[in-house]
Amino acid sequence: MDATSEDGYELWLRYRKLDDPTLLGQYRNAIHCATVLGKSPIADAIRRELARALPAILDQAVPLSDRTRACNSLVVGTAGELDAIGVSLSQADYRRLGEDGFTIRSLPFTGNHWILITGISGPAILVGIFHFLRLLQTHRDIHALDVSVCPRIRHRILCHWDNIDGSIERGYAGGSLWNWEELPGIAGTWLVDYARACASIGLNGTVLNNVNAQPESLSTEYLRKTAALADLFRPYCIRVYLSPLFSAPVQLGGLGTSDPRRPEVSEWWKRKVEEIYRLIPDFGGFVVKANSEGQPGPQDYGANHDDGANLLAAALEPYGGMVLWRAFVYDAATDADRAKCAYEEFVPLDGKFQPNVLLQVKNGPADFQPREPFHPLFGAMAKTPLALELQITQEYLGQSIHLVYLASMWKEVLDSDTYAKGPGTTVARIVDGSAGDGATSAIVGVANTGSDRNWCGHHFAQANWYAFGRLAWDAGISAEAIADEWIRMTWSNDPVVVDVIKLMMLGSWEACIDYMTPLGLHHIMQEGHHYGPDPGFDGAPRADWNNVYYHRADAEGVGFDRSSSGSNAASQYHSPLREQFDDMAACPERLLLWFHHVGWHHRLRSGSVLWEELQRHYDAGVAYVQEMVRTWQSLQGKIDPERHRHVSERLEQQLENAQLWRQVCISYFGRFASSKPRIRGPDPCLP
Ligand code: GCV
What we know:
Oligomer: single chain
Bound molecules: 4-O-methyl-alpha-D-glucopyranuronic acid
Shape: globular
Distance between the termini: 31 Å
Helix content: 25-40%
């Protein structure tokens, strides 16, 4: 690496000297010194962050203390701490902010100017200072600040599918971040940087182990290790959670059963939870995968999901812990259409869960596909809080090779109208609780982090971690605004760089759909690892583990008939969606083959027939990646060489893979389409 090279370790917390002299003058004038009130681990974390960031950005020393001074100053403190020095906002202001919200205000103060960052709690001001640093990093005017922001979702959680042997299920950025072998004695130096990164985007929870859980995670030995991580993360307001194995009472506790209705089983969980809270007083709770893909669960004992979830909820309740019970179930005995199973299993249980249980629902009814309709459970469980589960790691979207900016997908999901309580009942409002009683709310993202120096494998995959946090904090921010911030903080404030990268990112998700699964196709990736195309795969032991199950191509057409003439999954949605999805002519074309088996010569809105339109999408997807390769090249010299080269190499691989997708899918589906696949010359980028 040469001197100007960067390796991506700093993520978006890249504090660099401001290169705009006018703005630098403004910032230096506004921040002669900084005061962080209070004595607490959170206040110390804030001091450390400001000590790192301010001198670097301002390129001059910035005295930092815990007392206010007679100078233009940044002043940080909670309501109580400000009160103690005779300064405070009104009670009404603080009430509006709620527990986690913060405000940043420019105020005249005894002849000087202050920039005040305050909120009710420590966590609030921690996020507040990162917000303020973001303003500096993105070169905003800080003259007359009056910003108030509060999160709409209470629990904003990263979920790591990490195993205790250090591997990560669906991880594409090296091994696990948690150095289990050395814990609790030795903590990895990177762990505090992990916590800083999470805190900077407003996350406040992390699930440490895979939902395909191992019993050892709940052993005393591993709980001590977990407690060491919790201690490190606490100053950054990140609570830890675990995924328990439902059959742990048998496998770990030596009981003869894990039946949730048996008193010895509930006693075992009570004792285990008591032990957890002795070691980790602010433990967040459990995320549970039960009776799904071979994981044990209450149905193994003739009980149901509510029995299982309520058993754990009862043990956690005295400590304020919660259960995130996953709805990712697809027992073939429930329904022959996998996409319908979760709805059928869980809707009858609405109202049967304890108040500290949330049902954790993936964004779509299949499995984190490039595009799915939103999950019909959103809007169908009025008496149960629903947590939204998103997948940051790109299992089905090109892993750490493809540049795909996922904020666009997540916005589509969050903004989807379920019509559950009339128009405007969006998924976002169901998740944040504002469409219901708002008692509690959570959002969970399956992490894309690992031991790679740049954390996420691909420098651009960092944007998805960032975007998850920002949307978890406020689903109302646009994908474009998030990209803009992230680019400025991660790459450069040079307007050319910002514009070029933003353009690449904003179309990248739609392009990925185009070259992988256009018009509602889904689940045609290669078996097992899910990278690359294999639409013809038909060798799995279960029908719905085969790709042909999902596209159903035949001489007539292609697509899964989920209309009333087929599986009738469309009926799981509220009107007017169910009618729209049911009717081939009214169904949004982006979801056409999700809901309908469509004739190859069926004419679409563009005037082209389906087979032509499919090919057009494959071409458009590949063309987009070609354009990304070209535009990225144009940034040579404007981006540090190491990161530029790293991204270039991946873009080349992405192009190769996109071309492979096009070639394999067109040749495979072309065998069914009555028109012949078009003849194309050899593709120079294909092996
Ligand atoms: C953790 C998909 C993935 C699995 C994952 C599962 C889940 O099936 O391929 O790796 O298991 O989803 O979300 O539980």
